[in-house]
Amino acid sequence: MAECFYTLSLIFILFVCSSSSTCPEHCLCYSASEGPSVRCINQGFNTIPVIPPSTVVLDLRFNSIQRIGEDDLQGLTNLKTLLLNGNNISHIEPGAFTGLGNLKYLYLKDNFLKSLNSETFFGLSSLNQLYLHNNKIEYIGSRTFQDLGALESLFLSHNKIQTLRKGTFSELSKLNRVLLERNPLHCTCDLLWLSRFLRKLKQINSTKKSTCSTPSHLEHRTLVSLTPEDLNCSEPKFIKIPLDIVISFRPPSRAYFYCQASGHPTPTITWLKNRVQLDTDEHYVILDDGTLEIHQPGKDDEATYHCLARNSAGQKVSGARLMYYEEEVAPKFIDTPEDTQVVEGNAVMLKCSSQGIPNPTITWSRNSHRLTPSRRIRILKSGALQISEARRRDHGQYTCRAQNKVGYITRSARLVIKTTPVFSLKPAAVTEVVEGTSASLSCRADGYPTPAMTWFKDGTRLPSEERHVILTTGSLRILLVQTRDQGMYTCQAINVIGVRTARSRLVVKPK
């Protein structure tokens, strides 16, 4: 927005002076269309003079004011426009703008401000436009603008800002214009949020001049064009997630919820109890690897705990329960296996988890034979069965058994291994028959789903004739062989997983 200039009419009405509303010396006080105005431009003021309380527009541009004191603007409840451009302001005392709830336009450009915090603009609930360009600003606290709910335009260009913390603009629901050009922005993953925020602004064209200064490979790149890959960002990804814990009237001395996550930057781990952030103390301890350690767990610790892994690229949440029982409890399933189909060679997991007191032990069997864990077949901590490379022999019925000293329960599911066809019988490479006799070309294939068997002669599907008989096994029989039957025959076995072929040359000898 262009800087406001105020043109006096040829005739203006001076303020009616009293001891509380005297026009400051060397200033011009008049009534304008906006309301009572005080103009003190380029008068050499080192501090803000006493201003009439009815003032609506206050123009103090191009003076030598170095600070805005807590009481300098006290009582100016009607003020809507404040121009302080071109001074030497380097400090704004906390609460300096308290009471200016009607202020809409604040001009602080061309000064020497270096840092802004949550108390700098406290009380400016109606502020619409804030001009801070051409200062020396290096630091802006994440809560600096928390009271500026009406702010629509923010000018921060030509400063020394290298980064802005996530959440800096989170309270500014009406903000549609932010100018950040000519700042030495250091574009790392910490600014990914800002790139995404600027892209959502209504006046996005005003953000296209905001560019990176460092690192060198991103120099002059606009913030709105940056991607997570450009900034070497990756969202958190869980390596370990917390699992449910069941404790009884004889609890262990410690209980552990494990949680680890990868990502760039390295995610920070925080814990929540029933959706409220957990305060760490001697009872609740967060270990260096993110694990939550609960000392002397008891009934009061029964709750849902969530692990929150967060970095500047995003966040992930995973939860688990701590359950407390005052007596022994028989096993009860939480997750059970379901009928599953998998393509041969792929990994598959059958879920099974349970709870009870004491904690149930889970075992698995296939076709009534107990499974022994191996490199390829594992029983996870949750109780699930994981097969890393499914094979034909893994086909069958699987049963999960959860047992403790009170009793046991079982649940079964069928695992079907889908396989490409495999020939169990192939035709001979060459088959010789005498004209007028019968020829048999053997062919049989196994697989799941059951393969469909088709025959071809010299690359063309074998025509349907009474002399051509395809047996249920897939073999081909040709009755009353003729010389025209001579050629290359192909047996094809096909299902949804794959296709296999076998060939045989039929030679017909004359009688």
Structure write-up:
Residues 236-318, 331-416, 421-507 form the Ig-like domain. InterPro entries: Cys-rich_flank_reg_C (IPR000483), Ig-like_dom (IPR007110), Ig-like_dom_sf (IPR036179), Ig-like_fold (IPR013783), Ig_I-set (IPR013098), Ig_sub (IPR003599), Ig_sub2 (IPR003598), Leu-rich_rpt (IPR001611). Keywords: Cell membrane, Disulfide bond, Glycoprotein, Immunoglobulin domain, Leucine-rich repeat, Membrane, Repeat, Signal, Transmembrane, Transmembrane helix. It is found in: Cell membrane; Membrane. This is Cell adhesion molecule-related/down-regulated by oncogenes. The protein is mainly beta. The protein folds into four domains: 22-184, Leucine-rich repeat, LRR (right-handed beta-alpha superhelix); 235-325, Immunoglobulins (Immunoglobulin-like), CATH 2.60.40.10; 329-418, Immunoglobulin-like; 426-509, Immunoglobulins (Immunoglobulin-like, Sandwich). It contains one helix and 43 strands. An eight-stranded mixed β-sheet has the order 1-2-3-5-7-9-11-12, with no helix packed on it. Strands 26, 29, 30, 33, 34 and 37 form a six-stranded mixed β-sheet that branches. Strand 1 (28-32) and strand 2 form a beta hairpin. It starts with 27 loop residues before the first strand and ends with a strand. Residues 1-20 have low confidence and may be disordered.
Question: What structural class do the secondary elements suggest?
Answer: mainly beta
The level 1 CATH classification of the largest domain is Alpha Beta
Spans where pLDDT lies below 50 across 5 or more residues: 1-20
The percent range for helix content is under 10%
Largest sheet: 8 strands, mixed
Q: Number of helix segments?
A: 1
**Strands, count:** 43
Q: On the 0-100 scale, what is the average pLDDT? A: 90
Q: Tell me what the CATH architecture of the largest domain is.
A: Alpha-Beta Horseshoe
**Strand arrangement across the biggest beta sheet:** 1-2-3-5-7-9-11-12
